[in-house]
Recover the amino acids of this structure.
């Protein structure tokens, strides 16, 4: 079984780290807090060409791949991509300005759902394997 390493979901994972960290009580202070978060996801789908390079199409979604590798040899193959991540550091409920966390009225002005700031260690591990052939498209 050939393995292909793909660093494709990093920006999505970074967004998830900040979004997960923000799922807190809005009455809490905007003060920085230390957290340790982790997650994992596996998808199985067909590798195909896309306008921007390559993508994996599953039964329910299409995942664009952010890679500089030429994956042409794997187009039409069924692949399994597994990624796991860990983040340990400080999360702030609001973005940083001038290197200092914003507080008080500035923190309250940040729209709900907008990313705050994360400072710490972030590790991502992504690996892929060819697990078969894809059915031909009609």
């Amino acid at each position: 079984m050939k393995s292909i390493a793909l660093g494709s979901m990093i920006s999505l994972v970074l967004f998830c780290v900040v979004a997960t960290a923000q799922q807190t009580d809005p009455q809490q202070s905007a003060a920085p807090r230390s957290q340790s978060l982790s997650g994992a996801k596996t998808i199985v789908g067909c590798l195909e060409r896309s306008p921007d390079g390559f993508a994996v199409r599953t039964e329910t979604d299409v995942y664009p791949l952010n890679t500089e590798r030429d994956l042409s040899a794997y187009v039409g193959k069924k692949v399994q991509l597994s990624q796991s991540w860990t983040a340990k550091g400080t999360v702030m409920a609001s973005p940083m300005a001038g290197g200092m966390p914003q507080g008080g009225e500035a923190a309250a002005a940040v729209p709900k759902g907008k990313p705050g700031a994360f400072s710490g260690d972030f590790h991502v591990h992504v690996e892929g394997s060819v697990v078969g052939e894809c059915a031909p498209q009609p």
